[in-house]
Amino acid sequence: DRNLHIGIFICYESMYPRYSRLMTLNESNLLLTQSNDAWFQSRAAQEQHLSAVVLRGVENRRDIVRSTTNGITCLIDAQGRISKRLPADVTDLLSGEVTLREGKTVWTRFGDWFVYACLAFLVGTLLTPQIDCLRKRRLLSN
Description:
Layout: E1 6-10, H1 17-25, E2 30-35, H2 43-60, E3 64-68, E4 74-76, E5 82-85, H3 106-110, H4 113-141
Parallel strand pairs: 1-2, 2-3
Antiparallel strand pairs: 3-4, 4-5
């Protein structure tokens, strides 16, 4: 299909939102992640890794195909729902349907601007009383 633009991230890159965001900004309409989860020591770690992948799909409103050699292979829709899933450590073929999506979320467009805006507001709120106090001292000393 000429309209298929896949953004691919490998293994631990799924922990960093900027990669999937940049791929979506570059017109990816489907995300694919490949991983070898053998180095995880527990099933809980595999689930946590999967949770990060789910977040990448929701943040960018993109379906994700997750393929692992020995972890959790699954299909995730743009709302974060796992539509199909293989059990952990099962070698098999998973097939299903995904939706190619267009458009960008607010987070995809602007990234962490909201976090920085909140931080600036917090700093401003904390500094305002200090600045007022300094002004009053200067006025009293003159």
